[in-house]
Amino acid sequence: MIAKPHPLFLGIDTGGTYTDAVLWSEEGNPKGKVLAKAKALTTRHDLAVGISGAVDAVLEKSGTDPAAIKLVSMSTTLATNALVEGQGGRVALVMIGFSEADLARDGLKTALGTDPVVFCPGGHDVHGNAAKLDLSGLEAALPELGRSVSGFAVCAYFATRNPAHELAARDLIRDKTGLPVTASHELSAKLGGPRRALTTLLNARLISMIDRLVAATEGFLVKRGIAAPLMVVRGDGALVSAAFARQRPIETILSGPAASLVGARHMTGLDDAMVSDIGGTTTDVAVLDQGRPRLDPEGATVGGFRTMVEAVAMRTFGLGGDSEVALEDGALVPKILLGPRRLVPLALAGMAHGEAVTAELERQLRAPNPGRMDGRFAVRTGVPDRLAAGLTGPEAKLYEAIGAVPLALDRLLTSNAQNATLNRLVARGLVHICGFTPSDAAHVLGKQSNWDPAAARLGAELFSRRRDGRGQTIAATPEAIAERVLITLTRWSAEYILETAFAEDGLDGAATVAHALVQRAVDAHPGIARLTVALDRPVIGLGASAPLHYAGLPPLVGNGCIVPEDTDVANALGAVVGQVRVAAEARVSQPKEGLFRLASGQTVRDFTDEAAAIAAAQADVRAIAAGRAKDAGTDNAEIGVSTEFKVSTIEGQRMFIEAHVVAVASGRPRIAV
């Protein structure tokens, strides 16, 4: 009897710099087998180019018939990177039942920036009773907003107890503009209006980005004859269908890091470890405990914003191979500073554009004195023109001057005001800055060679002749500055790992790491009183550059560092070994004695019997979870329901306050037959 072949799974990870692909088979053993892996540059102007480059290489290496692939699963750091770098589409926030003072809470005003906000009377109380809704102001603003934003975020007061007003606003906006609308009750059942509004705002900003990613992937799969379901990794490590992710892109923040945790556990078999994943833009640090990643009960924090998205307890730092290299201001002996902004490395720009980059670097080197914009270029990201909606006059004029070929900043900018304008274009995701990065430093030292080492060396030479506070050049040679940059990156990596460990122990992580005693311990500073600091578990180093940047890590963190064989595709591997997991929630409250109000999904119902209300809540969440599980991509979900009661006792009598009912559905994703 001929053995039936094991199904093949394709994992894809679209990062800020690279797109990874891995072909994996269960092969009859717990770890399965990586049949082939490959990398290609992420092409933000057309994501399908990078995806096809990585996947085609995997198919060619393995000799696999594309039709044999039964499941495609994707993780991405695009949403995470966008929030860290402050990027995203321009959206309008609609606040129903809130006042302008509410913008000051939970970082909402900072997140909103210059995007428009509309306040409307309405909303509900804690029991779901409605105030008078008036959407006339919103309706009057829609013609102008429809021309200047890419989407809308709607948040109503106590919408988690009654979403009726959010639904009314959503329907009005869709009818008048046809643009994407995110309603807050669709994303979270938690109380806390301003933070729910923040989460909704960020979701609306990310929709076009994730939509482009999914569309690019689906289009590529069709062209290659891969008729398999497409899944996306969520921020808690679970898998959901691409259609599900398109509507709730905020849930893909920390998607890549969550997938890497699943991959790290799969590759090493370690139950307890610190996991540090270094990419081009960010370093993501998390904890594995008893074989599972720790989840953040308060919601994921990315780019300084605390969201209501359930995700791994991951701390994301703006430190990676493509981090901006800068000098500390005003110091006699300035320190090297890294990130948080990602630049296009000069080596990469040189490889893509040749003389257009190297000739300008050589011109700047011939100048007798260093210039403050030396080694810096601007280039369009290549996103669709509609995403440039709402530019001011100065922004539009500068954007027109920037093209698809990098343009030296000392030729482009004529004033400090223009520099601020350029930074706004970068924040909108319309323009990239090219400059000196750790990836360039690695090229200078021969530790990386996949791009243009000549452009990297020119950039290092320009950077090394910058002056310190005493008027001296900061480094004698390009090699010297490159070495300093790489040492700084390893040191900062160690500090971020320790910061995460201290924070998980309940301390102020950043303040503790910055303490003089901890700094002495990390430096192994000699003295009569010798201090040490050590992790209680090893570090799993992930990312293509982990072998380079983490080689010097063990003495700094007081424990070993394991870099698995397939560390360069940990995210893509984690994407294909996960499970679908979704949840549904309902609440039963008692507005007045003898009346039990059930809020579940988009419905509100009243009961006169507590037991009947609880039974209806449990039936509702089970049905909603089953439907969401099917939408998320599994046909064989196991569903568990839990109920938590809040009660009080008055004069010996039990008084019902509230019940919280949660259903969790999980299962392996469906595969093509």
Strand order of the largest sheet: 3-2-1-4-9-10
Helix/strand class? alpha/beta
Describe the biggest sheet? 6 strands, mixed
Question: Strand share of the residues?
Answer: 15-25%
Number of helices: 22
- Mean pLDDT equals 89
Please report the total strand number as a whole number: 29
How does this structure look, described?
This protein is α/β, with parallel strands linked by helices. α2 crosses α6. Strands 3-2-1-4-9-10 form a 6-stranded mixed sheet, sandwiched between helices. Strands 11, 12, 13, 16, 23 and 24 form a 6-stranded mixed sheet that branches. A 5-stranded antiparallel sheet has the order 27-26-25-29-28. The longest helix has 31 residues, at 193-223. It is built from 22 helices and 29 strands.
Features:
single chain, 673 residues, alpha/beta, 6-stranded mixed β-sheet
Summarize the structure.
This protein has 673 residues and is of the alpha/beta class.
Strand and helix map with partners:
Layout (H helix, E strand, L loop, with lengths): L7 E7 L3 E8 L7 E9 L5 H16 L6 E8 L1 H7 L6 E6 L11 H5 L4 E4 L15 H13 L2 E6 L7 H14 L3 E3 L9 H31 L6 E4 L5 E3 H6 L7 H14 L4 E6 L4 E7 L2 E2 L7 E2 L2 E2 L8 E3 L5 E5 L8 E7 L1 E2 H8 L1 H12 L10 E4 L12 H9 L5 E2 H4 L3 H12 L3 E5 L2 H7 L8 H12 L13 H27 L4 H6 L1 H7 L16 E4 L3 H4 L4 H4 L3 E2 L7 H7 L3 E13 L2 E6 L2 E5 L2 H23 L5 E13 L2 E15 L6
Parallel strand pairs: 1-4, 4-9, 5-6, 5-7, 7-8, 11-23, 19-22, 23-24
Antiparallel strand pairs: 1-2, 2-3, 9-10, 11-12, 12-13, 12-16, 14-15, 17-18, 20-21, 20-22, 25-26, 25-29, 26-27, 28-29
